[in-house]
Amino acid sequence: MPTQSDSIQPRPVESLESPDSPPSLRGQTVAVVGLGYVGLPTALALRDAGAEIIGIDVSAARLRDVRSCRVDLLPLRLTQLAEAAQAPDFRLTDEPAAVGEADTVVVCVPTPVDRHKVPDLGMLSAACASVVRHARAGQLILLTSTSYVGTTRDMLAGPLEARGLNVGTDVFVAFAPERIDPGNPAHEQERTPRVVGGADPCSTDRAAAFLSATAPFVHRLATAEAAEMTKLWENTFRAVNIALANELSDSCQALGLDPRPVIEAAATKPFGFMPFYPGPGVGGHCIPCDPHYLLWQLRTAETESPLVEAAMQAIARRPGSVVRQVIDRLARSGVPVAGARILIVGIAYKEGVADLRESPALEIYDRLAALGARVAYVDPLVPMARMGGADVQGVADPAAAKWDIVVIHTLHRDTDLSWLDGDTAVVDVGHRLPVSQELPR
């Protein structure tokens, strides 16, 4: 077996890249377990590479939404889904035993945290147990869900061995972290390199060959554990830098500076700097959750990570900081927060998606409403949302009402802000407006 240091050395280009003629999966059957924001586009990409797809999900409602194309996908993927949904090589089922019909099984289930920021492994544990129960000899089983270091061995390799299936000879097991960037066409799977580490060298080879059908480059690691840590490192890096961007943004404002031009100026340096931008907090499936998997595991090992701890605490406090900015701005205008008419522009966690998971807008809305404010929102991708324990309809025409203050939370592409007049107070948490209205006058 290669050493850890050997595994990260570049392999010959021809063994990892095939831009002109990527390998086909024609003739292979792939079961994709979990058809959420990762599993569904993964299934479509694999079908596009020639595989016959068995899409498995325990949620009947999700399967109905997939069949009727009522899902949040990029336009290209929606077109693919509309065609696939009518095709015999794209079968959807809630029957776990269908795993046994596949040559390769790809596990793509959510790994959230609970309200105490403790990893919730329930869905992953159940999915892996089901896969182990129905696995057969000859299969490649690929885990993509982000989790703690050791998950692949604990939930797949070990239980398969206990069933009598020898990993590396009877079955092949590997971890390849998902790298989905929802709503961003520049980062489609076919354009994004993949990382993979197997439970043994043969599993790594099998998984790398499989992944090369839908990725421009596959980087191999010696172990599944190294691949698991890679994903935790990637998103912890992002979390720490987002927390830093928020803090330096506040520092700029305290000094009377607009942060955005400062960041753009710093980004002209061609080395040693990567731009991160301030915002209302973080949302979605990765950054609010993944670092907590690392911190949780480190605490059990009695190992401290004070920088990461501080970054995640700062991120958790960020929506409250936005609320304080709103209250302060209203006070400067002589408007009490109780009864104030407040509009939040964009409530999805990022531009280009309709996803509300962990969106800071939800906490901002609830906090302001609890203070007696009359809060509304406008978001072209989210016409209705569950806010403050009730279903809330988004504002159709923000120009039709007078607002005491507008909070710019998420700006989807081509968002029209022409209705904003110079008299309306604005809290632009990402400092994206041409001239920030937050600066002291």
UniProtKB/TrEMBL annotation:
Gene3D superfamilies: NAD(P)-binding Rossmann-like Domain (3.40.50.720). The keyword Lipoprotein does not apply. The keyword Oxidoreductase applies. Residues 12-25 have a biased composition (Low complexity). Residues 343-435 form the UDP-glucose/GDP-mannose dehydrogenase C-terminal domain. SUPFAM superfamilies: 6-phosphogluconate dehydrogenase C-terminal domain-like, NAD(P)-binding Rossmann-fold domains, UDP-glucose/GDP-mannose dehydrogenase C-terminal domain. Keywords: NAD, Oxidoreductase. Transmembrane segments: none annotated. Residues 1-25 are annotated as: Disordered. InterPro entries: 6-PGluconate_DH-like_C_sf (IPR008927), NAD(P)-bd_dom_sf (IPR036291), UDP-Glc/GDP-Man (IPR017476), UDP-Glc/GDP-Man_DH_C (IPR014027), UDP-Glc/GDP-Man_DH_C_sf (IPR036220), UDP-Glc/GDP-Man_DH_dimer (IPR014026), UDP-Glc/GDP-Man_DH_N (IPR001732), UDP_ManNAc/GlcNAc_DH (IPR028359). Belongs to the UDP-glucose/GDP-mannose dehydrogenase family. PANTHER family: UDP-N-ACETYL-D-MANNOSAMINE DEHYDROGENASE. This is Nucleotide sugar dehydrogenase. The lineage of its organism: Bacteria, Bacillati, Actinomycetota, Actinomycetes, Kitasatosporales.
